[in-house]
């Protein structure tokens, strides 16, 4: 299933509830259970495995939580709803968090789901592009501009290629089809756990250039964000949520095959060859301690964006992220 297909499917959805928690406990103070609404960054996929498994195996319930997982029709919506207090938490991206905090949104990172970048620049393995230097004079497909363009430019400059020396082509989210069909020489903004598997499924081998090896500071790809202004009121529930995610992640790592069977059983639409490959590709990327914070990582990326003129001023770490495992 190509990225184009996946995104179009998601765009056809309104706010779709997935794998809801037990309804008996919702909003019932006497039950000792806390209800949380958590919005995904997109429709369900293997990157969300710890949440699905925590729901399926009753881990959230054991931690006194009734968690409602919500899939958005528009991936730009979750941070806005968190900022407006309409949902408790959302899955988002560290690079976007820096920009949103700079814009004044009351958002803060409270946990990490995927602890490495997923973003890559991708070419066909049968092309003459063996390094980023070989992209000079080539065409590069992209889906959205903004921070992805900043990351690509940093990669190019790190390899002595001026951004003006490449042709940028908007392929409207059809990253894999555009590359397979040789409409572009490369694509940026692809995810290493999915697009390589999608290409292999179509019989085309890909070659990836990993951004953290090409001059971009490493970062957390997927994070949990909450409203900074109301954080103290929900700190206990969020701490229990991260403990549940940590428990589910450990179980997945210990039981990857059983985990895949449980994951695909949660929704028949998830049972695809690409998702199965993505499942195993994603497992090593999960944060083993979701609540723990690598402050240097956030400070380094903040400095990177400031140097590139993407933010107006450097925000202190306390405005960007918190470590719920610390008092």
TrEMBL record:
<keyword id="KW-0732">Signal</keyword>
<feature type="domain" description="SsuA/THI5-like">
    <location>
        <begin position="45"/>
        <end position="258"/>
    </location>
</feature>
<dbReference type="InterPro" id="IPR027939">
    <property type="entry name" value="NMT1/THI5"/>
</dbReference>
<dbReference type="InterPro" id="IPR015168">
    <property type="entry name" value="SsuA/THI5"/>
</dbReference>
<dbReference type="Pfam" id="PF09084">
    <property type="entry name" value="NMT1"/>
</dbReference>
<feature type="signal peptide">
    <location>
        <begin position="1"/>
        <end position="25"/>
    </location>
</feature>
<protein>
    <submittedName>
        <fullName>ABC transporter substrate-binding protein</fullName>
    </submittedName>
</protein>
């Amino acid at each position: 299933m190509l990225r184009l297909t996946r995104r179009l499917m998601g765009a056809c959805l309104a706010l779709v509830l997935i794998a809801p928690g037990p309804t008996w406990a919702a909003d019932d103070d006497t039950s000792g259970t806390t209800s949380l609404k958590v919005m995904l960054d997109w429709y369900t996929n293997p990157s969300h495995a710890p949440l699905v498994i925590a729901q399926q195996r009753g881990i959230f319930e054991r931690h006194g939580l009734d968690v409602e997982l919500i899939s958005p029709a528009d991936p730009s919506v979750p941070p806005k709803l968190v900022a407006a207090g309409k949902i408790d938490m959302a899955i988002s991206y560290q690079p976007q968090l820096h920009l949103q905090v700079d814009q004044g949104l009351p958002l803060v990172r409270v946990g990490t789901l995927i602890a490495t970048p997923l973003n890559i620049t991708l070419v066909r393995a049968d092309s003459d592009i063996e390094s980023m230097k070989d992209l000079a004079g080539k065409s590069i497909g992209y889906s959205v501009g903004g921070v992805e363009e900043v990351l690509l430019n940093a990669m190019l400059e790190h390899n002595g290629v001026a951004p003006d020396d490449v042709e940028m082509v908007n392929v409207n989210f059809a990253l894999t089809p555009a590359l397979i069909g040789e409409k572009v020489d490369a694509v940026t903004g692809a995810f290493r756990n999915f697009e390589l598997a999608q290409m292999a499924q179509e019989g085309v081998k890909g070659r990836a250039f990993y951004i953290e090896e090409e001059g971009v500071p490493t970062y957390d790809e997927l994070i949990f964000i909450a409203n900074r202004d109301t954080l103290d009121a929900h700190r206990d529930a969020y701490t229990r949520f991260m403990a549940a995610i940590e428990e589910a992640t450990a179980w997945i790592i210990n039981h990857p095959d059983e985990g895949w069977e449980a994951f695909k059983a949660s929704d028949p639409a998830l049972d695809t060859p690409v998702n199965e490959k993505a499942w195993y590709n994603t497992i090593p990327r999960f944060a083993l301690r979701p609540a723990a914070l690598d402050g240097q990582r956030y400070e380094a990326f903040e400095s990177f964006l400031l140097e590139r003129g993407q933010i107006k001023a450097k925000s202190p770490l306390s405005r960007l992220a918190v470590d719920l495992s610390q008092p």
